[in-house]
């Protein structure tokens, strides 16, 4: 079940990243984050009330609050890095955040066997290559690299934290709700400050109509991201964290395939090789 939940996480993260990337071409990234997470808060609030999830309130929810604070920081660092550095370097480099939950699993005493260690190595290499890193060209700005590493740490820490925020399904709904409320509060505050400093919350010359038109896509991005967090937490609770973390982080393969299917982007040789290695690593891990 761990492998199944982890691969579902990869699917949801990959599609959410693809959808978010498309939206940020038309709408400021911070607005996309706040709007999509607001929709997630509303849906999760209904689920918490319907399932009685509020009865699971306890000190473990501080892990969800921490995940909610780190999430927007990681996302903004990631988008900033994309703005100043080549996507072909930034995107795969951000996926190395997988080392955070893997390190947590090892710290907690998990000791994968030889096939699993081989799978870890092969899958991580495949994840990085699947993003299509640029091996030639001008050097990447140091600021872009630092921002990307900050984003990678944040993404990995969110996975590790949300896995510790609940111990059952109803508790998971409450933890995800708390995380998203914190996301919206932190992202909303950042958006307010940005607007006060002259930044744009909406595309120039556009009104709220652009958000209404994008509502289905925003809902998909927000809910897919929530679903990914939820399935990762279930994967980590039902099996080795190291296995769950690496399999969940194969999402660059999904993003690349979505770009191929929807935008007709051709996979480069290095991306195809990375996808193949990620699949080989998946088989070794599942063994």
**How would a textbook summarize the main sheet?**
none
Cα radius of gyration in angstroms: 18 Å
Low-confidence stretches: none
Which percent bin holds the helix content?
A: over 70%
The average pLDDT score comes to 79
Q: Structural class given helices, strands, pairing? A: mainly alpha
Q: Which shape, going by the Cα principal axes?
A: globular
Write down the domain tally.
1
Compute the number of strand runs: 0
Strand coverage percent: under 5%
Order of helices and strands: HHHHHHHHHHHHH
Q: How many distinct helices?
A: 13
Instruction: Kindly report how far apart the N and C termini lie.
Output: 13 Å
Oligomer: single chain
Model description:
Keywords: Membrane, Transmembrane, Transmembrane helix. This is DMT family transporter. The longest helix is centred in the middle third of the chain and has 28 residues, at 169-196. The chain is mostly helical and 287 residues long. The chain has one domain. The protein starts with a helix and ends with a helix. It is 77% helix and 0% strand.
Secondary structure elements and pairings:
Layout (H helix, E strand, L loop, with lengths): L1 H22 L5 H23 L9 H24 L2 H8 L4 H9 L6 H17 L11 H22 L5 H28 L12 H5 L1 H24 L2 H8 L2 H12 L6 H18 L1
Features:
single chain; 287 residues; mainly alpha; 13 helices; 77% helix; DMT family transporter; membrane; EmrE-like; EamA_dom
In short:
This protein has helices at residues 2-23, 29-51, 61-84, 87-94, 99-107, 114-130, 142-163, 169-196, 209-213, 215-238, 241-248, 251-262, 269-286.
């Amino acid at each position: 079940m761990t492998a199944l939940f982890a691969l579902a996480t990869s699917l949801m993260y990959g599609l959410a990243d693809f959808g978010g990337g498309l939206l940020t071409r038309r709408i400021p990234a911070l607005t996309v984050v706040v709007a999509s997470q607001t929709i997630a808060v509303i849906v999760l609030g209904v689920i918490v009330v319907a399932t009685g999830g509020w009865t699971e309130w306890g000190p473990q929810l501080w892990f969800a609050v921490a995940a909610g604070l780190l999430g927007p920081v990681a996302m903004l660092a990631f988008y900033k890095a994309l703005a100043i550095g080549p996507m072909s370097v930034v995107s795969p480099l951000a996926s190395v955040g997988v080392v955070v939950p893997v390190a947590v699993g090892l710290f907690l005493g998990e000791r994968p066997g030889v096939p699993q260690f081989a799978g870890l190595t092969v899958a991580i290499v495949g994840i990085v290559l699947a993003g299509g890193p640029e091996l030639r060209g001008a050097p990447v700005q140091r600021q872009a690299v630092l921002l990307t590493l900050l984003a990678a740490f944040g993404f990995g820490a969110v996975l590790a934290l949300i896995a510790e925020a609940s111990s059952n399904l109803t508790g998971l709904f409450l933890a995800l709700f708390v995380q998203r409320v914190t996301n919206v509060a932190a992202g909303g505050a950042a958006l307010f400050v940005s607007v006060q400093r002259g930044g744009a919350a909406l595309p120039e010359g556009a009104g709220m109509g652009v958000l209404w038109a994008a509502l289905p896509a925003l809902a998909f991005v927000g809910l897919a991201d929530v679903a990914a967090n939820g399935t990762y937490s279930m994967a980590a609770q039902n099996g080795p964290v190291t296995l769950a973390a690496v399999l969940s982080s194969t999402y660059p393969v999904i993003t690349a395939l979505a770009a191929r299917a929807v935008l007709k982007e051709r996979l480069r040789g290095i991306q195809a090789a990375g996808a193949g290695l990620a699949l080989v690593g998946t088989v070794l891990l599942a063994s």
